[in-house]
Amino acid sequence: MARPVKMRRVEFFPDTSYFIPAGKPKCKVEEMNLKVEELEAMRLKDIEGLNQEECAEQMGVSRQTFQNIIDSARKKVAIALTEGFAISIGGGNYTSKHCSFTCRDCGHEYEAGYEQDKVRCPACGSEEIACNKRGAVCKKHCIDKKFRID
């Protein structure tokens, strides 16, 4: 059995999540998907100027995991820029500091630490969970689009 993926903490969510080279129709451009945590890694390191240890701590991962995330992000952006690909930002294994969850069955409050915590209470296993920010899974800060209310 594979080891569960630990969620990466993300604080920044872009307003624009799709970039396309000028003058190219969307239907004729290949797309590169940049995960939300990859964008966060680049933001922390390249814009905020934090060192690797600070970035890793802020995202709640090891330094090696942070290095793997940022290496992947930079490679994807470099390929997109040199090959003329569109860049789509979305998906990944992330959570934010904005939301914590409460199990409606046992009352356990927690932050999602692993992928399965998005849908199941780590204390009792119930799938009756709610985001504490809105009482139901919230639109902006919760972990994955498939759990959002539109």
From TrEMBL:
Coiled coil: none annotated. Gene3D superfamilies: Winged helix-like DNA-binding domain superfamily/Winged helix DNA-binding domain. SUPFAM superfamilies: Sigma3 and sigma4 domains of RNA polymerase sigma factors. InterPro entries: RNA_pol_sigma_r3/r4-like (IPR013324), UPF0251 (IPR002852), WH-like_DNA-bd_sf (IPR036388). Belongs to the UPF0251 family. This is UPF0251 protein EUAN_15540. It comes from Andreesenia angusta.
